[in-house]
Amino acid sequence: MSLRNRIAFYFVAVTALSTAILFLVIYGIVHNTVYTHLNKDLEAECAEVANSIVYIEDELIFANTFEWSEQEHAQIEVNPTFIQVVDPSGKNLRKTVNLRNNNLEFHPHATRKAFYDLLVAGASVRQIQAPLRPDNGPIQGYLIVAIPFEESARVLSNLRYILLISFPTVLLFLFAVSRMIAGRIISPVNTVIATADLITRENMNERIPVPPRKDELYKLSETINRLLDRLQEAVVREKQFTADASHELRNPISVIRGTLEVLIRKQREPGHYEEKIEYVIGEVDRMAALVEQLLTLARSENGLRPMMGPVDLKLSTETALGHFRESIAEKNISVKCGFHGSDIINADAAMTGIILENLISNAVKYSCRNGIIQVQTIRGGNHIELSVTNFGHGIPQPQLNRVFDRFYRIDECRSSHLPGTGLGLAIVRRLVDLQDFSISADSSPEHGTTFRIGFPAA
């Protein structure tokens, strides 16, 4: 069953229950009103007739004979009233003329006033049977009074017929109307479905039209549009990442292939072979470093969870600096460190090591020969900020915000002899985000480039 039909069905089901209860209440009220009115008329007539009967030595005497000769007791066509008096055994003592050869129904077991519905000469009547006893003595007989019930029965029958016919009619009408209304209500959902069918990996620009009313469907459309925006950004980043990775891997492979092809064209001196082989090994190392960085990024985006714990920031920084001792010595770079006595942070030790190695590698790479690298911490309450500064040429402001993008390198670096893949700072940013740290970058030609990371103190 479609959503449209389900909405209409549930609405009609609730309406059917409510309508059935309402109809039952209406019929009950009318039924009770009709019978209450008839019973009051019967009781009034019974009381009037009973007052005309007296008891003399346990014998019933009909004192007011005019009561029995009234027109309503003689006629049978228009508003007749039937009266009959019987003894305790049911033997007829007296009855009105309009009963002719018929008798009202006697119920010997009814010792109290009781009402009945019955047929007299084929006509429906409402009857009351009341015991006759002097001053609560023994029962001397029974007074039975009846009045026609056909008009009232016809009213109740017509009411039942109308309610039974109108009930399914109303439900069918409500189902049709509610189905139409439900169709209009969920029309934005159909628009969502139609738009979603148009969206493919090659066509991510489609967006769902937002309804004019700011209701739940408006929020749903906006939420899906934001989701599509994020998916489109992810697809674009993936395409760019794939293109950049292919480009970065294609270059060393092409260089290695070209070098090896040159070597096998003709016999050469051993020294020439050694030189080219060393060059090829360098390209292989470059590819290995690139693949390792790609794997690090892939692991960080596939459910890698940091193992948080106390980490000595000073010790981790000294360890990372030790990995670049030869590069630092080769460029005659001075490293100035400024740490506090207890720079203990709450972080993942392995991720923190990778972050520090990439920041220091970046600082060494872009520092000038005989330059300075400055690493220091600033403590403020439960917060420790680590800054890594190199005093190289700096990064132009328009490009500063893109240094954390994958494979992004400023134009000067791409055209220079500086090695790199453009993944180091992207890895730093990803690992920082995984641990909910903060990172920022400042750069100027006069003061160099500084990267700052905010850690929570342990």
From TrEMBL:
Instruction: Give the catalytic activity.
Output: ATP + protein L-histidine = ADP + protein N-phospho-L-histidine
Q: Name one GO molecular function term.
A: kinase activity
State its Enzyme Commission number(s).
Answer: 2.7.13.3
* Primary location recorded for the protein, binned into one broad class: membrane
> Domain Histidine kinase spans what residues?
244-458
Sorted alphabetically, the keyword list is: Kinase, Membrane, Phosphoprotein, Transferase, Transmembrane, Transmembrane helix, Two-component regulatory system
Q: Say which domain of life the source belongs to.
A: Bacteria
Q: Which InterPro entries match?
A: HAMP_dom (IPR003660), HATPase_C_sf (IPR036890), HATPase_dom (IPR003594), His_kinase_dom (IPR005467), HisK_dim/P_dom (IPR003661), HisK_dim/P_sf (IPR036097), Sig_transdc_His_kin-like_C (IPR004358), TCS_sensor_his_kinase (IPR050428)
PROSITE patterns for the chain: HAMP (PS50885), HIS_KIN (PS50109)
Sequence ranges assigned to domain HAMP in this UniProt record? 183-236
Give the source species: Pontiella agarivorans
Which residue ranges does UniProt annotate as crossing the membrane?
A: 7-30, 159-177
EC top class named in words: transferase
- Pfam families annotated for this entry? HAMP, HATPase_c, HisKA
Instruction: Show the CDD domains listed in the entry.
Output: HAMP, HATPase, HisKA
PANTHER family membership: SENSOR HISTIDINE KINASE TRCS, SENSOR HISTIDINE KINASE YKOH
Q: Where in the cell is it found?
A: Membrane
Q: What is the lineage of its organism?
A: Bacteria, Pseudomonadati, Kiritimatiellota, Kiritimatiellia, Kiritimatiellales
Q: What is this protein called?
A: histidine kinase
**Is NAD one of the keywords?**
no
